[in-house]
Amino acid sequence: MSKTILRVEDLSVRFRTEEGVFNAVDNISFTLEEQKTLAIVGESGSGKSVTSLAIMQLLAENGHISSGEIYVDDENILNMSSSQVQHNILGKKISMIFQEPMTALNPILKIGDQITESIIEHQGTGKKEAYEIALDTLKQVGIPSPEQRIKQFPHELSGGMRQRVMIAMALVTRPKIMIADEPTTALDVTIEAQILNLIEQLKSTFKTSILFVTHDLNVVADIADDVIVMYCGQIIERGPVVDIFENPQHPYTKGLLATMPTLEDHKGELPTIQGGVPSITQRPGGCYFHPRCPHRMKKCETQSPGVYTVGQQQVKCFLFEGNKEERNDGK
Amino acid sequence: MFKKNSFYDFAYRRFTRNRLAVIGFAVTLFFVIMALFAPLIAPHEPSEFFFVEGQNVYDKYAAPSSEHLLGTDSLGRDVFSRLVYGARVTMMVALLAVSISTVIGTVIGLLSGYFGKIIDNIFMRLVDIVISFPVLFLLISISTIMDPSIWIVIFAIGFVSWTSTARLVRAEVLRVKELDYIAAARACGTSNLKIIVKHILPNILAPIMVQVTIGTAQAILMEASLSFLGVGVQQPTPSWGNMLMDAQKLLVLRDMPWIWIPPGVVNLLLVLAIYFVGDGLRDAFDSRQ
């Protein structure tokens, strides 16, 4: 049994809006094991990005963590002061890769200045030494002629190169956890494959655990060890990646997987899930998925289902009521 | 001139392609040189009184001649020399006042925009109060209470004109702080101070620089109007504003254009030139072009 490196318990994130207060993330719990990749999958508005931002304490001004605990190395970071988190956690134990390599680099700072920033901040090394480490990291993320690149500005690099720089920035302090928020969405497919390979390879060289947030199931199949499927701020299914893909249980997961195009069949239109994710202000009662669910029952409209074990998976759906119940809130 | 392919390198290239901006820059530079080398250019001391040949009478209101290129003023002083030295005073007042207002405005704008909430509220109400000050009356009352000096003019202009810079900087911070690279910097554990100084400030420097040029032009105009009304730069120190004071006399206004046209024209020229530079900078920094 490997060590748990990140443990999120009963996390709820609340947003204040014009129309009231809403839970963007609703009582979710999960763990990330050492040197594993956990993928959080979901459509837009499912709360997957909010979860990662909450862990990084980067929530927008109108959002806050209303309850729950986030343990990094068995320390609850929500009990720390913001300067403690900034000094001891962010950039040191957890780092993040952003979705848009075009905008996530400061346009007027040279690559080198941006990478060395967190080394100087966290390890107190001199500028020269930090520069050497940065150069070394750039080599490891596969940037050709890093001596030259390190002196360039972000706009002189291609999208793929910039994402490599982002990864170098995230890895330069050798964090234990790397959160990747759709890191390949903005890239084209060939570059995407390269970046995924790189992340995979760096995971073993740097012994990092990865929390991978994405909506792209192909990427999940490629990279994840375990998968969490989110819908409307709740975890509706979780399990090892093989089980989720071979044998999805929740009607939503089944629907998602059915929408994936395959190379074999060319039978015209792709299947879709009816309807769309309800907005945070208009979530239905009972199971949030029931209006779109092909198997909905009467009680789905009024009661929220518990979480039931099916093989290696945990599913939040009444279809599996006969199975062993885990907890009512998603652990 | 700048690091190749940097933001400022591109801006420099765009600026130099803008003819009006380059002319404006040249005119501004001309006046700056005039101010710097005033003792070499001016034929006389600015406060030197001239007498009518062989008499013990001031040579007042003398028409332009080879001796006095732009004639003499109401006290028999050489207008051209005062004009040259006046460039010094006018520019010093404008630059120091703009430095004060830029520093105050930038600091307040940064804090207000970055931290938001109550800090923002306090500072923005302060801005509202300062904007509502009747500047002219304030200055007139200050100059009647205190001994008028050039420093009062500088601080007065500085302390009333930082509000537009503060608002501009605040708006820019609000825009920039939502960008991904600020979140990325925060995700690296960068401190607030460092994010403000290293990531936000350099990225909003361009609009601040535009604001500085426009602020300089406005400060020159403000100095001119204050001095014209007698509450700005005091005699015998020459400034383009107080040189225009003589024009308050109908006789001078009607019959002695050499006394008031030159300071008025240079004032106009310099302000216009600085505005052209400001416009040029704004276009040059606009990377969408």
Please give the oligomerization state of what you see: heterodimer
* Secondary-structure element pattern of chain B, one letter each: HHHHHHHHHHHHHH
Tally of domains of chain A? 2
Biggest sheet character of chain B: none
**CATH topology of the largest domain in chain A, what is it called?**
Rossmann fold
User: How many structural domains in the coordinates of chain B?
Assistant: 1
Low-confidence stretches of chain B: none
- The CATH superfamily of the largest domain in chain A is P-loop containing nucleotide triphosphate hydrolases
User: Which whole number gives the mean pLDDT of chain A?
Assistant: 84
Q: Which two protein chains have the largest interface (Cβ within 8 Å of the partner's Cβ), and how many residues from each? A: A-B, 32 and 21 residues
How many H/I helical runs of chain B? 14
| Helical content of chain A (DSSP H or I, runs of 4+) | 25-40%
Determine the strand fraction of chain B and express it as a percent band. Answer: under 5%
Described by the principal axes of the CA atoms, the overall outline of chain B is elongated
Estimated radius of gyration of chain A: 21 Å
User: CATH top level of chain B?
Assistant: Mainly Alpha
Strands of the largest sheet of chain A, in order across it?
Answer: 6-7-8-3-9-10-12-11
